Amino acid sequence: MSSRKKKELRRANGEGGISYLGDNRRKPWLARITVGYRPSGSQIFEPLGTYEKREDALLALKEYNERKYNLIDRKITFEQLYYKWTKKHFKKITEGSQKGYKTAFNHCTSIYDRRFAELRNSDLQKVIDECRQRICNETTYKKFIQYVI
Which of the 8 DSSP states describes residue 77? Predict the structure, then answer.
């Protein structure tokens, strides 16, 4: 058997890169992508994140390349997303529906400042359970669920 390490194949152009930042870090592996070029021709990088293992950084790059999500939108909070969404959506719906969405949103105060990309089903379930305790009327609760989902 050969004692050589297996050399990894290069990624295609535009798929991003991985850098090792050094030993004295908890998460030494950096995954990054190219978002543009300077007039001099050098690349402008945007980090996807730092990771404990090289494999985790590779996985983050793979996930990004499959979805190609907007990096700015990845940082948006639940509250910011709601207001951004209402600017477009409220033009198309009735005033009664707008009130329903506003009421449902007001019950979500516990997740206003959370990044939307980091929200999990358990976080949303917690909001629904808290609402269930506050709302005694079954009809109102069903409407809340309709607006949230």
Answer: B
